[in-house]
């Protein structure tokens, strides 16, 4: 019996197998082909450098519109074993709602748990803490914007550089000498060099080669009030952006500006939050036209710039501030603009969580409006996301995702929407590979 039946049945089975195999092969080849074209490896997405193409950020041949956050104190927390776990916790919670970029400090000058104790003298344990932050970020597929010095006194800042200069016998009269005195500029350059050439003790990777870094930021919120013409700060930006690129041509560079319109564009002053904003020595358009600067930044703080009392004015300001900066990035700068800090303080009069959610939604809607068109609204970063139990660091702006479910939902939905656009719009491997995605995501698409 078996002799009579085994032959044909084996044939049929083999035939089915063969057919199935062909189909499977085709499918595998197709997927592989797409992955190769996109520069992906077999174990998921390749971890490659963020680049810029015109108005957009690009990773692995796809646009990279950013949903991100700030947590400035990661290095300092990582420096102490008792608080190190908070770093992992915040990355874990952020990645759970799809946040993919974190902005944090790669400086702590002359203060408690200083990274740089005195010019060019580093605390190795604190540097190892920064190494840890970077290696943890990568585990959660989060990229870092690393800021290199502060305009403000927190964590040292330009005033600490001036103190160091005075201690070395220099005749310095203003904190803004940071931008112009040759010795202070050489201190800053030495810090830049030390950080960019650092070899990570956890990953063995040199910082300047590590795709975990989204970009460098020259300074957190530079202002140079001693020279409202803007020339002094402009010269500093010109010198330092080229200096960073001379050491690290691979990573993107941004300045770290709040985004105020300055003397070079009097017609744009109407978009500033107040008349003082034009007097702080910064200039959104002119500063960002500097060689070596890859993308623009603006912050959004109507509660500190317009009025502490919350109202609809803050929402209206947010819309026009974003729109004017996105328009300028497209029409004058040809680069993406990232709203790298935005938020509202729970200490403001009239605060409630509904207002905060409305503000966040407003920012996200405006980013999506740009994303849909492939525009220059490159992304936004919440100020700021904290894990639980770090309230003593809170300046009023902290968002604890695990305790703010409605906010977490808004953040998560925005991540999904941005990811949809990011994955829909691959240039190298268009619709053929993405048909399924398109079908799956069509509803998303429509609902936007
Ligand atoms: C320090 O610099 C200021 C302003 O540049 C100048 O007026 C002053 O004479 C200088 N002092 C000394 C001791 O050189
Ligand atoms: C880093 O390099 C050291 C010494 O060459 C080696 O022992 C270690 O395994 C390396 N670590 C990683 C994560 O590659
Ligand atoms: C929340 O705060 C805003 C601004 O102060 C106010 O207009 C609004 O009525 C408040 N909403 C609730 C539900 O309390
Ligand atoms: C979307 O962008 C266009 C200009 O590009 C602007 O006119 C429009 O007001 C924006 N819509 C929203 C909802 O922000």
Describe the protein's architecture and organization:
The protein has 448 residues and is α/β, with parallel strands linked by helices. The chain has 13 helices and 15 strands. It has an eight-stranded parallel sheet. A three-stranded antiparallel sheet has the order 1-2-3. A two-stranded antiparallel sheet has the order 6-7. Helix 3 packs parallel to helix 4 (124-139). It is globular. Mean pLDDT is 89; it is low at 1-18, 39-43 and 427-448. One 2-acetamido-2-deoxy-beta-D-glucopyranose is lined by residues 203-204. It is found in: Secreted. Its EC number is 3.2.1.78. This is mannan endo-1,4-beta-mannosidase.
List keywords for this structure.
448 residues, alpha/beta, TIM Barrel, 8-stranded parallel β-sheet, 3-stranded antiparallel β-sheet, 13 helices, disordered N terminus, binds 2-acetamido-2-deoxy-beta-D-glucopyranose
Looking across the biggest beta sheet, what order are the strands in?
10-9-8-5-4-13-12-11
| Shape assignment | globular
Q: Quickly give the structural class.
A: alpha/beta
Uncertain residue ranges:
1-18, 39-43, 427-448
Give the proportion of residues in helices.
40-55%
| Number of separate structural domains | 1
Give the strand content.
Answer: 5-15%
**CATH homologous superfamily heading:** Glycosidases
Per CATH, which architecture? Alpha-Beta Barrel
Number of helices: 13
Whole-angstrom Rg? 25 Å
Order of helices and strands: HEEEEHHEEEHEHHEHEHEHHEHEEEHH
CATH class: Alpha Beta
Q: Which hetero ligands occur in this complex?
A: 2-acetamido-2-deoxy-beta-D-glucopyranose
Mean pLDDT: 89
Main β sheet profile = 8 strands, parallel
How many strand segments? 15
Q: What is the CATH topology descriptor?
A: TIM Barrel
State the distance separating the first and last CA atoms. Answer: 65 Å
Domain Glycoside hydrolase family: 49-383
GO biological process, one term: polysaccharide catabolic process
Main location: secreted
Protein name: mannan endo-1,4-beta-mannosidase
């Amino acid at each position: 019996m078996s002799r009579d039946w085994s032959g044909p049945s084996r044939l049929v089975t083999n035939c089915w197998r063969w057919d199935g195999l062909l189909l499977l092969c085709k499918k595998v080849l197709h997927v592989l082909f797409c992955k190769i074209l996109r520069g992906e490896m077999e174990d998921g997405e390749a971890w490659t450098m963020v680049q810029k193409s015109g108005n957009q950020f690009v990773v692995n041949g796809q646009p990279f519109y950013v949903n991100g956050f700030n947590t400035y104190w990661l290095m300092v927390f990582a420096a102490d074993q008792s608080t190190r776990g908070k770093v992992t916790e915040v990355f874990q919670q952020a990645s759970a709602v799809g946040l993919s970029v974190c902005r944090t400090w790669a400086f702590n000058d002359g203060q408690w748990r200083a990274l740089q104790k005195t010019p060019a003298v580093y605390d190795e344990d604190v540097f190892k803490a920064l190494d840890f932050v970077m290696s943890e970020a990568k585990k959660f597929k989060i990229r870092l914007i690393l800021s290199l010095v502060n305009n403000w006194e927190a964590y040292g800042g330009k005033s600490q550089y001036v103190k160091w200069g005075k201690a070395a016998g220099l005749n310095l009269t203003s904190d803004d000498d940071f931008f112009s005195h040759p010795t202070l500029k050489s201190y800053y350059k030495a810090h830049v060099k030390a950080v960019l050439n650092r070899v990570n003790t956890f990953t063995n990777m040199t910082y300047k080669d590590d795709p975990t870094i989204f970009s460098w930021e020259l300074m957190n919120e530079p202002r140079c009030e001693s020279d409202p013409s803007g020339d002094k700060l402009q010269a500093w930006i010109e010198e330092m952006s080229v200096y960073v690129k001379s050491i690290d041509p691979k990573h993107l560079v941004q300045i770290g500006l709040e985004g105020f319109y300055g003397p070079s564009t009097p017609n744009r002053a109407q978009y500033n939050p107040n008349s003082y904003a034009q007097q702080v020595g910064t200039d959104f358009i002119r500063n960002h036209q500097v060689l070596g600067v890859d993308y623009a930044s603006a912050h959004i703080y109507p509660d500190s710039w317009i009025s502490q009392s919350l109202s609809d004015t803050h929402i209206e300001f947010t819309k026009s501030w974003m729109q004017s900066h996105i328009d300028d990035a497209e029409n004058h700068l040809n680069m993406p603009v990232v709203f790298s800090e935005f938020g509202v303080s729970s200490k403001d009069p009239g605060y409630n969580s509904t207002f905060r959610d409305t503000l966040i939604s407003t920012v996200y809607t405006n980013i999506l409006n740009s994303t849909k068109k492939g525009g220059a609204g490159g992304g936004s970063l919440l100020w700021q996301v904290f894990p639980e139990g770090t309230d003593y660091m809170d300046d009023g702006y902290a968002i604890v995702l695990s305790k703010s479910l409605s906010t977490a939902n808004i953040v998560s939905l925005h991540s999904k929407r941005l990811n949809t656009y990011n994955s829909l719009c691959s240039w190298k491997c268009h619709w053929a590979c993405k048909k399924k995605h398109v079908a799956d995501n069509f509803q998303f698409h429509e609902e936007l």
